[in-house]
Design goal:
Elements lengths: L1 H18 L3 E3 L2 E5 L2 E5 L5 E4 L4 E3 L2 E2 L4 H44 L4 H21 L7 E3 L11 H17 L1 H14 L4 H50 L9 E3 L7
Antiparallel strand pairs: 1-8, 2-3, 2-7, 3-4, 4-5, 5-6
Helix pairs in contact: 1-2, 1-6, 2-3, 2-6, 3-4
Length: 258
Amino acid sequence: MRTLVAATALFFSTASMANDCNMNLHGEMELSHGQLTLHLPDDKLLHLDGHKALLNGQEMHLSHAQLNMLNQYHQNVNDLAPKVAGIALDAVALANEGVAKAFNQLLGEDNELVADLSSEIDALRIKLHQEFYTEDGSIRFNSANFDNGQFLGEDFESEFEQKLEKLVQRSMGSLMIAIGKEMLFSGGDMQAFEKRMDRFGEQLEADMEVRAAGIEAKAQTLCYDLSQLDSLENQISSSIPQLSGLNMIEVSESKYSM
């Protein structure tokens, strides 16, 4: 079943790649309708809207330079949120395409299994979309929903894997019949059949890796942007005494460093 292995492996390697930024989140960050709220580790609540800054509900009295840094921080998070959403949704789309091609090769085009699988994966895509976008289409972001700072966490990957396993088990009879037919077309030559499926698996893997390269490029840019946000936090904590404990995002050196 190399075709299925190739498709599912690409999903999990893509998810891992998107998370491979060595990023740690301290405290909770929430963005909704352009309003950014930071739950700082020292029990302070910082609210930014791009124009002013409120600390524990009170407007902060800042210099022009200090306010500019906070407004820049707000803007950077606003810019980063759709990038995070885009990578997550691209990874799900890649998984859907890869697994569908694998099953289509075994069962033929437009088979019921692929339709069911696509429906299940689409439900996951909708779930992800709702994590990042409000009903009116504006971006939102809540770090509390991520697993250890990862936006495609273990729970999400486990749910995807379980759905795939259940569908395969339910359709095992159809898969065995399809494999039997393929062997008959190969004149009963099991080795010929295996070689043909291996060639398809290799081609599928190569095709998916090309698509995954585009996601990797986005992940590289995202990681760099996150490191810039980390640097800006350091500047803010050094320049504004009330926010000396600001350390929401910590990015250590990774293979995506620029």
